[in-house]
Amino acid sequence: MLGLEKSDFRLLLLVIVLTLFAPFLLNPFPVDSTMAQFNAGYPDLMQRFVIFGIFAIGFNILFGLTGYLSFGHAAFLGAGSYAAIWMMKLLTMNVIPAIVLSIVVAGLFSLAVGFVSLRRSGIYFSILTLAFAQMSYSLAYSVLTPITGGETGLQPKIDDPRILDSVLAVGQQARANLFGLDMSTSHDLIVGGWAFTFNAGYYVAALLMVISFYISIRIFRSPFGLMLRAIKSNQNRLGYTGVSARPYTLAAFVISGMYAGLAGGLMVAMDTQAGAERMFWTASGEVVLMTILGGAGTLIGPVLGAGMIKYMENIVSKINSTVLEGWFAWMPEIIQDVVVAVVYPFVGKGWHLTLGLVFMLVVIFLPGGLMEGFRRISDRFFGGSRKTDNSTGGTTAPTAAE
Amino acid sequence: MSERNDITRRRVMKSGAAAAAAAASTPYFFTRAFADGHGYLNAPKGDTVTLGFNVPQSGPYADEGADELRAYELAVEHLNGGGDGGMMSTFSSKALKGNGILGKKVAYVTGDTQTKSDAARASARSMIEKDGAVMITGGSSSGVAVAVQALCQEAGIIFMAGLTHSNDTTGKDKKANGFRHFFNSYMSGAALAPVLAKAYGKERKAYHLTADYNWGYTTEQAVKESTEAMGWETVAAVKTPLTQTDFSSYIAPVLQSGADTLVLNHYGGNMVNSLTNAVQFGLRDKQVNGKDFQIIVPLYSRLMAKGAGANVKGIFGSTNWHWSLQDEGSKAFVKSFGTKYGFPPSQAAHTCYVQTMLYADAAERAGTFNPCGIVEALEGFEFDGMGNGKTLYRAEDHQCFKDVLVVKGKENPTSEFDLLEVVEVTPVDQVTYAPDHPQMAGGNLGTCNSGA
């Protein structure tokens, strides 16, 4: 269906169902329970899950298929963000022109960067992209301050021209919207002690992620995708057979750059602010982590990796010593102090440490990422009979990550 | 992920949904802001009110963030009636009674800004959307302050800025829901200039090294304009990349330029490195134009002074507040902070503590947590007893106007906290400017947003 094999279609359906019911799945604990700390079903984080999911899906098209490790994808995300915010400042607060332009700008930018960087491969390619991204960051942070707002970034202001929008009434805010539907509109569904939040912006972003995911499946299964894999496995042999790899890698680079631009545009559409930090090299490194953590070369792995990192960043980082003391209040005081002292370095500001440990564990024991973990579990429970059955897209290329 | 696995998953989800539906006696929908009938976002339900403390816990300003958090915890303790009450007893407004705010116990959530606008906004949004915070405060850089302030304006939450010194926060990026107690670049320039003229004379040639980002620009402009008004000449102003750690290549040309004063518009690690380099180059032992060569650091903080060590001795700068001040408010604050943590508070801690108190007091006086009520209560509010003398929260730009301290590195520090000495307390009239001053131009405060 939709030009997909049955197993891929099933995977797509699974993604649709998961994104559709995310408000339920991410809020498993009642609001007033102590476990509510771990609820992730609030609009900002749900939006971030799908936006970084898109970013990682796009990155995976380049890294997972061709093996070219770009360390500069955050530059395209940033370029997309700036394009989107300028559309909102100059044209309209409607998110469609902003998102379209962000994809176009990021595409053109990645074409230029890719054209130069792809003259080299391996570590040299990585360093070139890193250099471009850091250059973009420095430009945005300092030199181009009149265009980018520098350190303080850009936000829509009351006095912006916005030629397509009607003039704001006194007291009215400039809000990102989709033909009048405010992206921050939320409805809460209260069921007993549970609260589930349905946010307009999330569903817009989720729809775009599902479309992105669909396109990514089609690319993975296309002759073009096969060619990209060929580049990864043996570029020399490809050269000897008379095929030039450059146009293919450049196309993959631009496509993944456009995905990054879409993610950047969506970030602005969901939260109207663009700043230079999102182009910093750590942001580029983050998407690499997401992809490897989830499973490079698998279809859904990068989305899981993105979700995992964003969850850590937003949930684990908010556990402070007071919260910990609350959890362990039932213990005798001395034991409580010891337990809190042991756990504390791993939560709150120590979330980086926890993430680092998880990453190390995954890389050492599950070189194929979280997807390899799932595959092993399913093998364990359903026997070896399915080992050879590459029935779902998620398992077709586990070796690609190694 | 096999076929069978998928089916189980679906079955589980189906049965889960059925169970949820059965358990729910009366599921109902509502739209956020109007949930409570009060007509403003996150109106506190029950007997607690939640504040959001959004401070850098990792990254270059983590130390400052930690001190801010200490101050917030102290403020919450005092608001809830614990401890010795700190500045509540010296505060000129007596609305606070030590029983929380409006009778509700103060609870708080914390987040890490990482000194990145995106992370700060993500953290602030989770406080607003998940934890129901009614006010966000904190931060240690202007980029974060401007970003979070804009977010709070959009969402309909009050933002009480922490440490932010750039003019933009209450200049071109000012917002009706945002308030700043900390002083700004303009005030630093205006306070420093007369002191510098007195100490170093009116005929000086200044050379600026400026960190290449917004705060650097506004500080350079402020110091340049105030010193030029006194008769100084600016020889050159050179931008240095924010990530620079070795400033030797920037300092060598200073001597060739004929300048006799170096102004370092740097903050944090930048300042520590550039000042150390300048001193190592022997700039301070040089004689140019028949005068001793001098170095100036417009914005000082204790953590920077600590980092630069002996190099700060005798170097002028400005700060918002210093723990050695002898007014009643400062003494009360230093005492309760010192009792709890064992060392004196930094200026970042002071401003954060005061901001929390001012918010709580405004809510008491307004009789509501509604942001529009708070804005009304804070606009044009005059108070005293918070460590900076008589202070005004100006209605036009939500900036506090108060005395500014000119300090210099102490020659004989007695402890690791006793690094700066107050040279002069510049009276508030000298640092006051018109709301439409060219250095602040281009902003629009807008109107208060209650999120309804």
Quote the average pLDDT of chain A: 90
Helix content class of chain A? 55-70%
Query: Biggest β-sheet of chain B, characterized?
Result: 7 strands, mixed
Number of E strands of chain A:
4
The percentage helix of chain B is 25-40%
**Average pLDDT score of chain B:** 88
Secondary-structure arrangement, i.e. CATH architecture of the largest domain in chain B: 3-Layer(aba) Sandwich
CATH topology of one domain in chain A: ABC transporter involved in vitamin B12 uptake, BtuC
Helix/strand class of chain B: alpha/beta
Low-confidence segments of chain B, ≥5 residues, pLDDT <50? 1-25, 33-37
Proportion of residues in β-strands of chain B = 15-25%
Q: How many domains, in number, for the residues of chain B?
A: 2
For the record, what is the CATH homologous superfamily label of the largest domain in chain B? Answer: Response regulator
Shape call of chain A: globular
Number of helices, where a helix is a run of at least 4 consecutive DSSP H or I residues of chain B? 13
Radius of gyration of chain A: 22 Å
**What is the annotated CATH architecture of one domain in chain A?**
Orthogonal Bundle
Tell me the distance between the termini of chain B.
45 Å
